[in-house]
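can u do me a favor
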């Protein structure tokens, strides 16, 4: 009986499924590829390609400006997706504030680059106003629900950003007064509304008989100190990279914030918690304004350079002349030279002589008269090419990286 069973099993060995029989022992994806219908395989590959390529295009679109090919994707896809993922009133208010800032940054970048047309300023101003009003509406709802501390912080960010952009627009206004004036009017209108809302809130705090909750003033003082320390670090990193006027303006605001913070600590020691809290809030607000100013400047530096203020009032000093060993002209995007003394080597009435200066880093703006005599000196190689820097003797100074 046993032998009959063995012969039967050998004669009727199990047959491997024809679908898997054609597939060698490889990866699981190969097995899935067999049973997956051919149209589904194509759709899966296409979907993965769109995901990979689309993420790269979406990232590139983040730097697009109005009039460029990817700008609609930036506004109608990227920003809407981020808005959908902004969960909670605080996130929605912060993102609407950021969208308003982005419209101002786009306007400033186009204006600084000389690419602004007649229609774009009005469109950007309208979008800026819509985003900013949406942010303030959410803040109003939060305030009615008792989230006053969070609203105060959000309003401080908004007010600081608006003041920073107003500063930048004031410096760009000579390039296109009418266009800047219209956009700046929108900024100043919203800035007035935001400031008035803050003043009303401060008046309510002062008139309140209960005063702030225990520990609130101490937390606000600590928050202001942290904000000041943070912006000081940002200024230290921006030294030599950011626009000179921007760094000076940021430092002036830090000095004001430090004064407000010292006053807040002094008042807190006397037991006046409400006054101490308001002074600490002022220090925090000015520190955030300084940080916003540096952020706006950094965004513009990625695309173009702002006009540098000079001692004689020249907004656009002549560019430095950089040459390679084959006498090809090299553009100069980078740092600057400070003219702080005058040499007496050149006789009166003659063009100033040129002095050899060691060159390092990336260069931005130098004062080189077109009629000046030029003498050359080799400087360290950069990217396999020798470069020579021409600097007039009357503008001795230092070159910063």
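np, heres the sequence
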């Amino acid at each position: 009986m046993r032998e009959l069973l063995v012969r039967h099993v050998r004669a009727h060995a199990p047959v491997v499924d024809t679908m898997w029989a054609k597939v060698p022992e490889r990866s699981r994806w190969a097995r899935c590829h067999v049973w997956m219908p051919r149209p589904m395989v194509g759709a899966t590959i296409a979907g993965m390609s769109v995901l990979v390529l689309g993420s790269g295009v979406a990232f590139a679109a983040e730097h697009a400006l109005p009039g460029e090919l990817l700008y609609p994707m930036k506004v109608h896809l990227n920003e809407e997706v981020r808005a959908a993922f902004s969960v909670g009133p605080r996130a929605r208010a912060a993102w609407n504030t950021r969208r308003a800032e982005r419209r101002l940054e786009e306007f400033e970048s186009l204006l600084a680059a000389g690419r602004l047309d007649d229609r774009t300023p009005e469109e950007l101003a309208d979008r800026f106003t819509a985003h900013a009003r949406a942010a303030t509406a959410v803040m109003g709802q939060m305030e009615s629900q008792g989230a006053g501390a969070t609203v105060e912080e959000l309003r401080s960010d908004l007010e600081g950003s608006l003041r920073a952009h107003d500063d930048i627009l004031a410096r760009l206004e000579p390039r296109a007064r009418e266009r800047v004036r219209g956009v700046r009017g929108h900024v100043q209108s919203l800035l007035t509304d935001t400031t008035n809302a803050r003043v009303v809130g401060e008046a309510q705090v002062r008139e309140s008989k209960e005063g702030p909750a225990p520990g609130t003033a101490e937390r606000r003082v600590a928050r202001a100190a942290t904000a000041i320390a943070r912006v000081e670090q940002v200024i230290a990193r921006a030294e030599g990279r950011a626009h000179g006027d921007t760094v000076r303006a940021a430092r002036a605001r830090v000095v004001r914030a430090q004064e407000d913070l010292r006053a807040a600590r002094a008042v807190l020691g006397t037991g006046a918690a409400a006054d101490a809290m308001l002074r600490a809030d002022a220090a925090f607000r000015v520190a955030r304004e300084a940080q916003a100013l540096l952020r706006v400047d950094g965004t513009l530096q990625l695309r173009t350079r702002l006009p540098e203020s000079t001692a004689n009032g020249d907004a656009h000093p002549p560019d430095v002349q950089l040459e390679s060993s084959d006498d090809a002209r090299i553009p100069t995007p980078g740092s600057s030279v400070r003219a702080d003394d005058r040499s007496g080597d050149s006789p009166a009435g003659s063009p100033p002589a040129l002095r050899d200066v060691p060159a390092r880093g990336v260069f931005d703006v130098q004062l080189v008269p077109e009629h000046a005599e030029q003498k050359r000196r080799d400087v360290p190689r950069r990217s396999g090419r020798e470069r020579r820097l021409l600097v007039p003797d009357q503008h001795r100074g230092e070159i910063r990286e």
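Residues 177-207 form the longest helix (31 residues). hope that helps!!
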